[in-house]
Specification:
Structural class: alpha/beta
Number of strands: 29
Radius of gyration: 23 Å
CATH class of the largest domain: Alpha Beta
Distance between the termini: 26 Å
Number of domains: 3
Number of helices: 16
CATH topology of the largest domain: Rossmann fold
Oligomer: single chain
Largest sheet: 5 strands, mixed
CATH superfamily of the largest domain: ANL, N-terminal domain
Shape: globular
Strand content: 25-35%
């Protein structure tokens, strides 16, 4: 079935129940007043702090945007890119696109103008909807050939775009008469290979719908659960975890901020029961509690039942600390890729906390194998490449048959991750075949950083690797080989990196020779052995 069917079902069964709430803590009132109480006191200005919509309103807003797109010539098979920060409009816009039969193309809000242009051209996008944070970047690419229209969400729209807020209000609230099946294309997400160039990952309605079923099966969401969504919605991870709530008509809270106080306050005031965290956020919460900066007695947290965590290696020591502070919480993690419609193809399970450090076993509706270089299963305990098969596997890399053939073979998705299975059937990741660095839940692509650093006049060669970091999981370290006779300091390199997006800047600079093998490739395994001391053994990760 089409994933839009779940939204329409909820609108019929739970029309007046709240579906989504947006909390903007940067505009929150004083600590003595709750968001809900403040809304009652300051009616008329409450939208600065808290906005909500019912399931019926959600469906109507999706229908209105779908009909607006149709009036602009968007039709089944077209692609509509989304460049928005997390907000109340995000998901209705996403589903509005899907209701036209077009494909939603979420863009990373950290993309530069060049990256926006590259990804829109790669996906052959026909339209873009964006928010005020991105006006300057979009203005640099608004004349892209093939793009039919630009929509702007917010006040003070730029001259080259149409106002979403103004036009969508006048469109029909009835769902467009577009037939959609589970085999129809639904969305394009972006990932990257070892070269660092994003690939366009094509998913169908069937693969997205399957992720709803898998997620709900894993975490037993009910209509009464309240899901706190903090990670960016452009990524498969956060959205696919929310899909479990979509399946049962449960409420979700979209929190625009990650400070420990904001998270606990949102849990308390909105009565959240499920909170999906990244490792740094969980560590920051524990540090704030242990330092006395946050007092648990100030919050209502007894309803919080589940803390799933992922998107990077999860230290078992962190979970032990968490259980000491929150002994009644269930803990869980999923492993997945954007190519497998987000987390869920491998699943630990709340009943298996004694196996923290493993990524788990095959998820609901999924199969797993660990194979050698010839695609043959390895013996239990031996190391090989993890491959997965299930209904959430991508259809292909859009317009990239070669890359698709390398990743998809006989229905199996080759993850590029090296793993082993223990005597109880639990899978442990040993290392990654790719050089992608996962820092704070974000993928960093060493080639991009290396290319940038090579432009420095004193740099002869450079290699970027990930070093273990307690808070971020990994941090980017640049090993820099200077030109003969050149002099340079760490401070000078850091200053040079100011033009890089902050999350891509290396956190550590090491001046040393960069080893290369006879074919000219950088010997990164050797560098890891030198500077990490050991490999990242039995680490747990999700993409």
């Amino acid at each position: 079935m089409a994933i839009t069917d779940f939204l329409e079902k909820n609108a019929k069964i739970y029309p007046s129940k709240v579906s989504l709430v947006e909390i903007n803590p940067e505009n929150q009132p004083g600590h003595a007043v709750t968001w809900r109480e403040y809304n009652l006191i300051e009616s008329g200005s409450n939208e600065r702090y808290r906005r909500e919509m019912t399931w019926k309103e959600f469906d109507i807003k999706a229908n209105r945007f779908a009909n607006l797109l149709l009036t602009r010539g968007i039709q089944k098979g077209d692609k509509v890119a989304i460049l928005l920060m997390n907000c109340l409009e995000w998901l209705p816009i996403y589903f509005g696109i899907l209701k036209t039969g077009a494909l939603a193309v979420p863009l990373n809000f950290r993309y530069t103008a060049d990256e926006i242009q590259y990804c829109m051209e790669l996906a052959q996008a026909d339209a873009l909807i964006f928010g005020p944070e991105f006006t300057g970047r979009v203005e640099q690419v608004f004349d892209l050939p093939g793009v039919k229209t630009f929509f702007y969400v917010g006040d003070n729209k730029p001259g080259f775009a149409d106002s979403y807020n103004q036009f969508v209000h006048y469109c029909s609230s009835i769902a467009p008469a577009v037939e959609i099946t589970d085999d129809d294309d639904a969305a394009i997400y972006f990932s990257s290979g070892t070269t660092g160039q994003p690939k366009a990952i094509l998913h169908t309605h069937g693969s997205l719908a399957a992720s709803c079923i898998t997620e709900q099966k894993h975490h037993s969401q009910t209509h009464d659960d309240v899901f706190l969504c903090i990670p960016p919605l452009y990524h498969t991870g956060a959205k696919m975890h929310w899909f479990g709530s979509l399946l049962v008509g449960g409420k979700a809270i979209i929190l625009r901020g990650v400070q420990p106080e904001w998270i606990l306050r949102a849990v308390s005031e909105e009565r959240a029961t499920i909170v999906w965290l990244l490792v740094p956020w969980a560590q920051d919460i524990l540090d704030a509690i242990e330092s006395g900066d946050l007092l648990l007695k100030d919050y209502r947290l007894s309803q919080w039942r589940l803390m799933p965590i992922g998107a990077q290696p999860v230290p078992p020591s962190l979970i032990r600390r968490w259980k000491e502070v929150f002994p009644n919480h269930e803990y869980d993690t999923n492993y997945g890729l954007s190519e497998s419609s987000g987390p869920g193809c491998v699943h630990l399970g709340v009943e298996n906390i004694h196996k923290v450090g493993a990524i788990g076993k095959a998820g609901h509706l999924w199969e797993t194998l660990i194979v050698d270089e010839n695609g043959k299963p390895v013996a239990q305990g031996e190391v090989g490449e993890l491959i997965v098969k299930g209904p959430g596997v991508m259809k292909c890399y859009f317009n990239n048959a070669k890359a698709t053939a390398e990743l998809l073979r006989d229905g199996w998705l080759y993850t590029g991750d090296v793993a082993r299975m223990d005597e109880d059937g639990f899978i442990f990741l040993v290392d990654r075949k790719k050089d992608v660095i996962i820092s704070g839940g974000e993928n960093l692509y060493p080639v991009q950083i290396e290319d940038f650093l090579r432009a420095h006049p004193a740099v002869c060669d450079v290699a970027v690797i990930g070093l273990p970091d307690e808070r971020l999981g990994e941090m980017a370290a640049a090993i820099i080989q200077l030109k003969p006779g050149a002099a340079c300091t760490e401070a000078e390199i850091m200053e040079f990196c100011v033009d890089l997006p902050r999350y891509k800047r290396p956190k550590k600079i090491i001046f040393a020779d960069v080893p290369r093998n006879p074919t000219g490739k950088i010997e990164k395994p050797k560098l890891r052995e030198i500077y990490c001391g050991t490999r990242l053994v039995e680490a747990q990760t999700t993409n």
